[in-house]
Each structure stands twice: as C-alpha cells, then as structure tokens.
Input
Amino acid sequence: MLYDLTVPAYINGLKALSGQLGKALAWGRDNDIGELQFIAARLAPDMFPLASQVRFSCGQAIQAATRLGAGDAPILDEDATDFAGLQAQIAATLAWLETIERATLDSDPDRAVGFDLPNGMAFDMTAATYVRDWAQPQYYFHLVAAYGILRHMGVPLGKADYVSYMMAYLRPGTAPAA
Output
C-alpha cells in the first residue's frame, strides 16, 4: 500500500517535471529567457527559486522512501546551476526510485516514523500517517511550486503537462481534436 502511494507517484511527477523543464528550456531559447533567469526565478520573495524547488521535489521523494526503509539514496546537497543539472538530479532520483522493492516500503504501515525539523520541531506518527499527512503534501507542494514558477515565467504549460502520465490511461478516441 505505501509503495503504491509513493514510488509510482514520485516517478510520475518527476518525469512530468522533467518534461516541463525541457519545454521551458526550448521556450526560453525562443523567447530570450536564459537558464539562469529560470534557475533563480521564484513565486514570491520569501519562497525558494526554481533550482531549489526541483531539488526539494527530488529530495522529498528520496526522504519519504528512506524514512520508510529504502537505502542507498542519492545525495542532492546543492541546487543545480543549469538545466542539465536539474535534469541530472531528476534522473538520479528516478533511477534510485526504480530500485526500491515494494516489500521495503510495505512491510508495516503501522510502524513508527519520527523526524525532526531544523527548527527543532519533532514529529512521531505511523508510516501510513506519515505518507498521507507529511510525505505526499510536501512532495506535491514543491512539484507544484516548480510548475508555478515556470508558468509565472511565461512557459506555455497546462494541466496536461503537469499530469502528462495520465495519457497512458486515456480512453481511445476521447482526446480533443487539435
């Protein structure tokens, strides 16, 4: 159960983010917006820039899986400085997620999961509650923030870019005409 709620969702979201970044890079070249402008862009002065949001999206997927028992995770200590670096962080995270065995995460949804935040706050909950109330909201917050920054910069993204993985489930003959 916990595997199904995490690893496939993280893979889907990170692949979609990779596609959004590819679209942003191409659009930026056509519209004289450089990689550094994207990398440093943020939605508000007190929010992290795109580079951090991408790293945090990867990091939240890694952190959730490791707190649930996965090992040998990649370490993403610093923000990428260009799109190749952003894509490399996503690729490393995806490659690692693909190695996680279902049994590792699904062993006991009622086991204790605790963690401390840098500000001194500490949390204790079950693995299932951790996934529902912390891991998933944190992951999607940063994924949406990255999407929002790209939209804010003018990249022509839509919901189909955010949930591009849904096309695998599209019923034949139901796509709108172009």
